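Subject: Antibiotic biosynthesis monooxygenase structure
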Amino acid sequence: MSDQLVSGIEPPYYTVVFTSIRTEGDNGYGETAERMKELVEGIPGYLGYETARTPGGIGITVGYFRDEEAIAAWRSRLEHQSAQRRGRAEWYESYSVHIGRVERSHGFERG
């Protein structure tokens, strides 16, 4: 889980919002999630991510990418595709993916 907000990215950029409801148990999910984090960090144009999960089980991960080419590069990674198949087979009750272009962005940080 990321423990800092992504900030300071100059628009325009893209977001990939992955919202999910997990199945029971880990079943290797944590290890694969760490590996996916390592892989995506090597994609040119990857800018960072934020993630959260409710006590009720809804998870939201927002990945930030410079352009659509970076998203396509991530989507085409064979190891990522394999993890997606395993996710549908074992880890998720349901999920959705939303991709958007960010035109404006601002934030606040105390202190």
